[in-house]
Write a structure and sequence with these properties.
Structural class: alpha/beta
CATH topology of the largest domain: Metallo-beta-lactamase, Chain A
Strand order of the largest sheet: 1-2-7-8-9-10-11
CATH architecture of the largest domain: 4-Layer Sandwich
Number of helices: 12
Largest sheet: 7 strands, mixed
Bound molecules: flavin mononucleotide
Distance between the termini: 56 Å
Low-confidence stretches: none
Shape: elongated
Number of strands: 23
Helix content: 25-40%
């Protein structure tokens, strides 16, 4: 018996879990896996929303066949063409030859680029509707959330938004499918990690999409994304989080990330953190960039206002794991943080000077003077670290009001 779950009387969850893949997009660690969510509406006309990664094609098609028995599948709505959701399109049309593929013009360009020409295209425009019988679908084009063809589909009798990757996150659905069935603390962390690393760069487009949904004035009873839990009890919780994340809104706290080979740079991080705590800052996270994957660093940097970066010099440049982090930060265009800088060097430097170059490019507000200790930090270096911590705490506390 394959797991299909009723979301409403006629809407089914037909997604699959992936516990085998180590890295999502061959980049982001999947410590607790990922789900590829898909949905089916069983009406006079039947419709499926998105497919799954090609490795999961068989179980996905078996789930559909288990619900439809001998009936045909009439529509496949393609909200997003990324291969983790489009991998079973061709196989689904092979199984159901009359299947109509629903998407926008950009969807079909990408579809043909990836899979060659298929058939029965039903091209929709922004705001178009499609009746399945009792259920009526409306389509909202939401380009560049985070691909050019991305769109959302809304079912009006139940108030269900099929939102593709928007509102989704990492983590398999281990029994619980709905927001009220799972430990939300874990899924919110994994949803922020997904958002900040994959969608975050396109915050302005997320804001446009949220505005479009708001202006449509549609009741949002259920949000059904293509990863992570289905939101039926508190869909506005995830909408609010998305709104805040895409405006780069922060919480009070400081993330200290350092690159250190022999522990000298690390000592400075500990002194800064202690001083922040003495100044009343409660959320303080110290990360060794060599130990914690950059995706977790980015997730916390998305959350907190204060950022303090440290690096030893390495072959005239930044320590490599810190270089990975600053490259990702530059690319993600994260805005409006408070930034302090520290590090070590034994001869001509390279760590702190490159962090200062990064600061010029990213244009965050600087906190204190950068400090570079010669090989190992001495009292005067620690005093400069303390000055950074004091100024950081003062500016964060000022923002409390
Ligand atoms: C492989 C390697 C490359 C280094 N490259 C530089 C460099 O280009 N410029 C410099 O001033 N120091 C360089 N150093 C020295 C370290 O940056 C310095 O000793 C620092 O204090 C090490 O800090 P840590 O204890 O936090 O690892 C290098 C050290 C090593 C082991």
């Amino acid at each position: 018996m394959l797991t299909t779950v009723n979301i409403t009387d006629d809407i089914y969850y037909i997604g699959v879990n992936d516990r085998e893949t180590y890295l999502f997009e061959n980049l982001w660690p999947l410590d607790r896996g990922v789900s590829y969510n898909a949905y089916l509406i069983d009406d006079e006309q039947t419709a499926v929303f998105d497919t799954v990664k090609n490795t999961k094609t068989h179980v996905f098609i078996d789930k559909i066949a288990g619900i439809l028995k001998d009936r045909p599948l009439d529509y496949l709505v393609i909200n997003h063409m990324e291969p983790d959701h489009s991998g079973a399109i061709k196989a689904l049309q092979d199984k159901y030859p009359d299947l109509k593929l629903v998407g926008n013009t950009k969807t079909f360009e990408l579809l043909e680029d990836f899979y060659g020409p298929l058939k029965n295209y039903h091209v929709i425009k922004d705001g178009d509707q499609l009746s399945l019988g009792t259920h009526t679908l409306s389509f909202y084009l939401t380009p560049m959330v985070h691909w050019p063809e991305t769109m959302m589909s809304y079912e009006s009798t139940t108030g269900t938004l099929f939102s593709m990757d928007a509102f989704g996150g990492f983590g398999t659905l281990d029994g619980g499918i709905f927001d009220d069935e799972v430990n939300l603390e874990f899924y919110m962390d994994e949803t922020r990690r997904y958002y900040s690393n994959i969608v975050g760069k396109y915050g302005a487009m997320v804001q446009k999409a949220l505005k479009k949904l708001k202006d449509a004035n549609i009741p949002m009873n259920i949000i059904a994304p293509t990863h992570g839990p289905v939101w039926r009890t508190d869909p506005h919780c995830i909408i609010d989080h998305y709104d805040r994340w895409s405006r780069a809104e922060t919480e009070e706290g400081v993330v200290i990330v350092y690159g250190s080979m022999y522990g000298n740079t690390q000592k400075m991080a500990d002194v800064i953190a202690r001083r922040l705590s003495e100044n009343g800052i409660k959320n303080i996270r110290i990360y060794d960039a060599s130990k914690t994957h950059v995706s977790y660093l980015i997730s916390d940097l998305w959350r907190f206002k204060g950022v303090i970066l440290g690096s030893c010099a390495y072959n005239t440049g930044l320590f490599p794991t810190m270089e990975t982090l600053v490259n990702k930060l530059e690319n993600s265009q994260l805005k409006d943080r408070l930034l302090g800088i520290f590090g070590t060097a034994s001869w001509s430097g390279g760590g702190v000077s490159n962090l200062n170059k990064f600061a010029e490019k990213i244009k965050w507000q600087r906190v204190g003077e950068s400090v570079e200790a010669k090989s190992s930090p001495k009292e005067k270096d620690f005093q400069q670290c303390i000055a950074i911590a004091d100024e950081m705490a003062e500016r964060l506390i000022k923002e409390r009001a």
